[in-house]
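Internal QA ticket QA-208
Title: Verify multi-chain structure generation after dependency bump
Assignee: T.L.

Test input:
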Amino acid sequence: MGQDTGSASCEEKKSGSSDDNTKCGIEKLPENDNSRIRNVIAVMSGKGGVGKSSVASLLACSLRRKGYKVGLLDADITGPSLPRMFGIRGMADSNGFAVLPPVASTGIKIMSLNLLIPNEDDPVIWRGPILAGAVKQFWTDVAWGEIDYLIVDLPPGTGDVPLTVMQSLPLNGLIIVSSPQDLAAMIVRKAIKMAQLMNIPVLGLVENMSHAVCPHCGEEIPLFGHGHGREMAEKFGIPFLGNLPVDPKLSQLCDEGKVEMYQTNIFYNFGPEVLLTYTRNKV
Ligand SMILES: Nc1ncnc2c1ncn2[C@@H]1O[C@H](COP(=O)(O)OP(=O)(O)OP(=O)(O)O)[C@@H](O)[C@H]1O
Ligand SMILES: [Mg+2]
Ligand SMILES: [Zn+2]
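Actual output:
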């Protein structure tokens, strides 16, 4: 388990070696023998339905297109949506010791509760601690192999599971997704505050569904007024990664299990350069 880190300060621990399993006194789960995961990034939002799973998937696809080895951990145990978006059905295999994550068409490895239950329509009616335990097992009991970026799709809000992920997984940072309806910014502020309390860097804010693009002339039509996301990011002092338009093509591809075919440049500049500022590891 964790090693003795003596009286090193938080900063020293953060810039410590990749074997350092503790940050700020909180014990991180060690990697298993079947995994070599270099960077872990979680995608969170203050409330549901703003597009976390879509953004997590698009980030995974962008990094994969750049040639990195990518995994997606579906930490939304009661509302898992990643297997469907990537067209993965059936149950995950095991090698007798660890669960093997199914591989999507572009090579992204995926683990989700839906890949462990016989019928994906069956509801999961577990209490918080059990949900949190399941997410930990996605780290400890899955043979991820070699992964440059593991993207974690969190359930909405700031409950048990996001807390467990922030405490137990060696996160490099978080990406926060908002929608322009979060006018009061209160919900986004909550997410950012939680990250700060847990000492996890916020790598950026993505504003989803802020505008539509006219299919005829390409004009961008703001749906809820201009620039809330950018303003909010500036206010909180976090990087603004960009606006994702409402695009029927995206929801269609997600429904058809073909999210890997969707192209967006929102994460074009997101890679090791960005993480270097924060990161414990380099790709
Ligand atoms: N930019 C977009 N354009 C069109 N449809 C979108 C866009 N973003 C998300 N959607 C659609 O909105 C729905 C919710 O998106 P998604 O599942 O990514 O949100 P979520 O925040 O993960 O939701 P939950 O809180 O339930 O996990 C999905 O049907 C998705 O296809
Ligand atoms: Mg989701
Ligand atoms: Zn037009």
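Spot checks passed. The longest helix spans residues 52-65.
Status: verified.
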